[in-house]
Amino acid sequence: MTAELVECHRCPRLVEWRERVAREKVARFRDETYWARPVPGFGDPDARILLLGLAPAAHGGNRTGRVFTGDASGDFLFAALHAVGLADRPMSRRAGDGLTLFDTYIAAAVRCAPPANKPTIEERDACAPWLALELALLARVRVIVALGSYAWDAGLRVLAGHGHVARPKPRFGHAAEATVGPYRLLGTYHPSQQNTFTGVLTPPMLETVLRRAAALADELRA
């Protein structure tokens, strides 16, 4: 799957953007070679917890080739994962640095960095089959943690595609929970700087949701 994913050119606007960002760069990364391709998920292949984000950051995953790696959102997320025992270190700045996730896999709803972090509906739908395939391969996943409302909706759509429809549609919120077929969907505010710098999301808030996810994974052990 990964080999096919990284060669994807389905969305011309996203292809143009990810490659332009890699050419123009920003001053602090001017000497680095950017990944500038779709970014696959990563983590424990036997994970029972799937963390789902929106899309790679233009100068984060689009640069490093690993989602949530090399940007401030990832710094906040990895610190929380380490604090609750789901990662072996509190920081990861580049792919291949030895970061190990325990019982956890991380992916994005959209695999290319979108302009202004806003994929179109058409781009969202074009990318959806990759998440559906990834979830099918992650046979032990029973808990999905949606990092933000966009990921919450993506989680509901991918589960519906697997035949698990929640009615009425569960509403997103921080620490929201929904049972969808054999899965439990949890929500948390996205660890973006917009949320973490303003105190909308604090480390204890995210850690509480992650601990809940780990507890549910034990309860729902396949």
What integer is the average pLDDT? 96
Biggest sheet details? 6 strands, mixed
C-alpha termini separation = 24 Å
Proportion of helical residues: 25-40%
Strand % is: 5-15%
Radius of gyration: 16 Å
CATH class: Alpha Beta
**Looking at this structure, what is the CATH superfamily?**
Uracil-DNA glycosylase-like domain
Query: What is the total domain count?
Result: 1
Describe the strand arrangement of the main beta sheet, using strand numbers. 1-3-2-4-6-5
Spans of at least 5 consecutive residues whose pLDDT stays below 50 are none
CATH architecture: 3-Layer(aba) Sandwich
Descriptive report:
With 222 residues, this protein is of the alpha/beta class. It has one domain: Uracil-DNA glycosylase-like domain (Uracil-DNA Glycosylase, subunit E), CATH 3.40.470. The protein contains eight helices and six strands, in the order ααββααβαβαββαα. The longest helix has 17 residues. The model has no long low-confidence stretch (mean pLDDT 96).
